[in-house]
Design goal:
Elements lengths: L4 E6 L7 H15 L3 E6 L5 H13 L6 H15 L10 H20 L4 H25 L4 E3 L16 H6 L9 H8 L4 E5 L2 E3 L5 E3 L5 H12 L4 E5 L16 E3 L1 E2 L1 H9 L10 H6 L4 E5 L8 E3 L8 E17 L9 H12 L3 E6 L3 E6 L9 H11 L3 E16 L5 H4 L11 E6 L5 E7 L3 H13 L8 E4 H4 L11 H4 L1 H7 L6 E5 H14 L5 E5 L6 H9 L3 E4 L2 H11 L5 E3 L6 H9 L3 E4 L3 H5 L1 H4 L3 E7 L21 E2 L3 H10 L3 E6 L11 H16 L5 E3 L17 H13 L5 E4 L3 H4 L3 E13 L2 E6 L8 H5 L5 E3 L9 E6 L8 E8 L7 E4 L20 E5 L1
Parallel strand pairs: 1-2, 1-7, 2-4, 3-4, 7-10, 9-11, 19-35, 20-21, 20-28, 21-22, 22-23, 23-24, 24-25, 24-26, 26-27, 27-28, 30-32
Antiparallel strand pairs: 5-6, 8-18, 10-11, 12-14, 12-15, 13-14, 15-17, 16-17, 19-29, 29-30, 29-34, 31-34, 32-33
The chain binds adenosine-5'-diphosphate, aspartic acid and magnesium ion.
Length: 859
């Protein structure tokens, strides 16, 4: 039995240079060991545009040199591949180009190029490209059988279809019929055919619409019964916005068919909108891959979308038309909409978005046959004018927020809508399937709006396993601010230390000090700062921060003991445990720590401890924030805190046992970059202050002050935080505001140094192995956290290797950095993993009995 087929589609830029054909040959040969390979190719980049230009010129009786330019591009590619463009083997390529020239000449002479003729002219681009491609592949040692796709794909026109639709945007049903491919392919392991083209039932050439090669490939994959379809293009996948317009757009690693189709039809032109239907119907996964970077993983489209609501991307489609009809006759008139839509069907003009009010119907039109100056549109307007006042806005752009259950994300989306301030929005529409929220705006407003909306929706977005690196990062942009980091100055010292071949955590105390001072100076509204020592309990760090006037926040009795031992009796300690044994409270109190309780349990379990004591209570504000679900500590499902609206009951229980409330405490989560988070919390606590009793002395707003981790994230705006807290502090004389920063003070002060143990290529993926992994730094595995990684030995050599940085632990999640650009390392080079001063060593383990990296402090 013949092996199964796999289908690879290569787009215009993927077939336009000899270097790309080398990749095609390599990928085809690799798969041909186990499968039969069908390559589906577009015309060389720009060809279809040029042929279209030539058709328009011919219709208008103008001369055009477009075909010569197309022929020249083919000859140049042949020469680059070491072939003589006049060689007999290239006769089929020349014949297709000559045919285009001949047909165009006829069109020019008559001044007419009906759709049927235009289809034959445009089809010659794909025919010539594949004729050339077969010869190039042969010269690279891959014998590929050339197939005419018109033998394989047959359209199914509907009786009312216009000629435009019948010949230039045909519909081809997806059928599984492997025998139709097996026969012409014979025993070839690799076959090569055209995208974009099909045949009508009458045997004429027709096209699938601009960009339709993706759809050809999907139809051929279904026909062949292929296991997967790979779309190879010039970007490494679907992104959260067009990466060429928005460099901070992030790669979407996985997505369901419906959502991907929504993205494609709303402007993500990397996929032709019709290509996912056949794949979804046959449950065939689609992979998007990057021809210039075959080592990158790309996007995988499969399965149905997950159920929880999420915003996935921002798209834009330009050059559309908004058409509105206003009339009082619409009100209460049954059948008005039927009359409105009838002429659209008659003129073959399809409608996209719809909005209606009592007196106006508005619709957008994506493509109008013959354009807004053409006859069908003029006839449509004449018919609509019989119904009411007609208004046309052209060109218009449709900007869409695409995702799942968008109506449930409105809270998240709302702040981003400030992007529309002072920009006229002509229509808003929410798709019935709830996969998009779309805005019709003036055409040139489209791109800046996408940029702005994307910034607002994605820049502060935490880690999301569905999303990969940004486009700029995948292209190898330098690590952010590397030049300013302390470890650049101290590189020689670090390399000396790592010279023993062991992994090391290294802390720079000057950076800790600088952070501590910067925070205090920026936030005079905060009366006292407590360092949340769980981030990094190293004794030198505690001493440095205590010397800067910081108190220490402890969450276990062991932390209280360590802080007391390091800092002596003068240090201010706050004990804020969660679900700890009752005995810990007594021991912490004996060591002079202030106590925080998060429920009434102590009143029953240790009334003796409470008698006559001032206590703080930790409240759950009812909402949380932070970079990952696992670090959000507020909200109903969180184990932390007592519900804020039940403060009265908690107070009576505690006072009943003889205690007084001296502080109110709340904490939202970690890695928060939104400066409004703490003022909002402060307002809540301030509103409860009167209900806490006369002994109240302070309000603690917790920690969670975030640092930009991913490139492109904005920093926390300390001025805005001060501005938000200042009026609250002023309104509460005699009550101190407290903050408990942890990672903000120490993350950047620490690095993890790890020696390279191996550089290994497995198929096309490059793994760089280092001497320690999740046993030293678990954050990437646990939260998908992103840490900068630099080859310190080679610094500042530019990054030239795209790799996965992995540790030695027996766990597939032991990855320190996915999809990273590094200056190519050799065994023994030292990689630096940045931002590792917080929750690095503190969360380390001896998993696999591998000791974690040891700590060194630089004074
Ligand atoms: P091909 O010639 O390979 O078919 P296309 O030019 O049709 O390639 O599609 C690839 C282009 O799609 C990219 O270069 C990119 O600019 C554009 N694009 C638009 N939106 C997106 C998106 N959301 N994700 C990825 N690419 C997009
Ligand atoms: N060559 C055709 C176009 O440019 C089809 C394609 O590339 O998908 O529209
Ligand atoms: Mg395309």
């Amino acid at each position: 039995m013949n092996p199964a087929w796999v289908v690879l589609k290569f787009g215009g830029t993927s077939v336009a240079s000899f270097e790309r054909w080398r990749t095609i040959a390599r990928e085809a040969a690799a798969r041909a060991r186990e499968r039969r390979v069908l390559l589906v190719c577009s015309a060389l980049a720009g060809t279809t545009d040029r042929l279209q230009e030539a058709v328009t010129a011919a219709r208008e009786g103008r001369e055009s040199d477009a075909v010569e330019r197309v022929a020249r591009a083919h000859a140049e590619l042949a020469s680059a591949a070491g072939l003589d463009p006049a060689a007999p083997a290239l006769a089929p390529m020349r014949a297709h180009l000559d045919e285009a020239a001949r047909l165009l000449r006829g069109a020019w002479l008559t001044g007419e190029a009906p759709p049927r003729l235009a289809a034959r002219i445009l089809a010659s681009g794909e025919l010539a490209a594949t004729a050339l491609g077969a010869v190039v592949l042969a010269s690279l040692g891959v014998g590929a059988r050339w197939l005419d796709v018109r033998e394989l794909l047959v359209s199914a026109p509907r009786p009312l279809d216009s000629d435009e639709r019948r010949y230039l945007a045909a519909t081809v049903p997806a059928v599984r019929a492997p025998e139709r491919l097996d026969a012409p392919a014979g025993d070839a392991a690799v076959a090569l055919t055209q995208g974009f083209i099909a045949r009508t039932p009458a045997g004429e050439t027709c096209l699938l619409g601009r960009g339709g090669s993706d759809t050809s490939a999907a139809l051929l994959a279904v026909l062949a019964g292929a296991e997967t379809l790979e779309i190879w293009t010039d970007v490494p996948g679907l992104f959260t916005a067009d990466p060429r317009e928005v460099p901070s757009a992030r790669l979407i690693r996985r997505i369901g068919y419906r959502e991907a189709r929504e993205l494609a039809s709303l402007g993500a032109k990397v996929l032709h909108p019709a290509c996912l239907e056949p794949a979804a119907l046959h449950g065939m996964p689609v992979a998007i891959r990057c021809t210039p970077h075959p080592e990158m993983d790309g996007t995988r489209i499969e399965g149905e979308q997950e159920a929880h609501p999420a915003v996935t991307a921002v798209t834009c489609r330009r050059g559309g038309t908004l058409l509105s009809v206003s009339t009082v006759a619409m009100w209460d008139t049954p059948g008005f909409l039927a009359r409105f839509f009838a002429p659209f069907e008659e003129e073959g003009i399809s409608v996209d978005l719809i909005g209606t009010s009592e007196a106006t119907v508005s619709v957008t039109l994506d493509a109008v046959p013959d354009g807004v100056e053409g006859r069908p549109f003029k006839r449509l307007l004449a018919r609509l004018e019989e119904l009411g006042d007609v208004q046309v806005i052209h060109p218009a752009a449709v900007v869409s927020i695409v995702g799942r259950r968008i109506r449930a994300t409105l809270g998240e989306v709302a702040p981003a809508l400030t992007a529309f301030q002072e920009r006229p929005v002509h229509l808003i529409s929410n798709s019935a399937e709830d996969l998009n929220l779309s805005f019709v705006v003036d055409d040139d407003e489209g791109p800046p709006l996408v940029q702005r909306l994307h910034d607002l929706l994605f820049s502060a977005r935490g880690d999301d396993p569905r999303l990969g690196p940004t486009w700029e990062r995948l292209r190898g942009a330098p690590e952010p601010d590397a030049g300013a980091a302390w470890w650049v100055r101290r590189r020689a010292e670090l390399l000396r230390l790592a010279g023993d071949g062991q992994p090391h955590y290294v802390y720079d105390l000057a950076t800790v000090r600088e952070r501590a001072r910067r925070l205090r100076a920026a936030l005079p509204a905060v009366g006292r700062f407590y360092y949340s020592m769980k981030a990094n309990p190293h004794r030198a760090v505690l001493e440095t921060l205590a010397a800067e006037g910081y108190g220490i926040e402890c969450v276990s009795i062991q932390e209280v003991e360590a802080a007391r031992a390091a800092l002596g009796s003068a240090a201010r300690l706050l004990f804020t445990p969660n679900f700890c044994a009752v005995g810990e409270y007594g021991r912490a109190a004996a060591l002079g720590a202030e106590l925080t309780v998060d429920g009434p349990h102590l009143a029953e379990e240790a009334p003796g401890l409470l008698r006559g004591r001032g206590l703080a209570v930790r409240l759950d504000p009812g909402w949380g924030a932070g970079h990952h679900a696992k670090v959000r500590t507020g909200g109903p499902s969180s184990k932390f805190g007592h519900p804020a609206d039940e403060l009265d009951a908690l107070r009576s229980a505690l006072e009943g046992a003889g205690a007084r409330i001296t502080g109110l405490h709340a904490h939202l989560g970690s890695g928060i970059l939104d400066a409004d988070a703490w003022p909002a919390l402060a307002r809540l606590l301030a509103s409860l202050a009167a209900r806490a009793g006369d002994a109240l002395q302070w309000l603690d707003l917790g920690g969670g002050l975030g640092l930009p981790e991913r490139p492109g994230q904005p920093a926390l705006d300390l001025d805005a935080l001060q501005a938000g807290l200042e009026p609250i502090a002023r309104a509460l004389p005699g009550i101190e505001l407290r903050l408990e920063p942890g990672r903000y003070l120490v993350a950047e002060a620490g690095v993890l140094l790890a020696p390279v143990t191996q550089v290994r290529r497995k198929r096309r993926t490059v793994f760089v192995g280092v001497g320690t992994g999740m046993n030293s730094l678990i954050r990437p595995a646990l939260y998908g956290a992103w840490h900068p990684i630099v080859n310190l030995t080679r610094h500042p050599a530019p990054p030239d290797l795209f790799a996965q940085v992995v540790g030695p632990i027996c766990e597939s999640g032991d990855v320190l950095g996915r999809d990273r650009w590094l200056a190519s390392p050799a065994r023994g080079d030292v990689l630096l993993i940045g931002n590792a001063g917080a929750y690095g060593h503190a969360m380390a383990s001896h998993y696999n009995l591998r000791p974690p990296a040891e700590e060194t402090v630089l004074a």
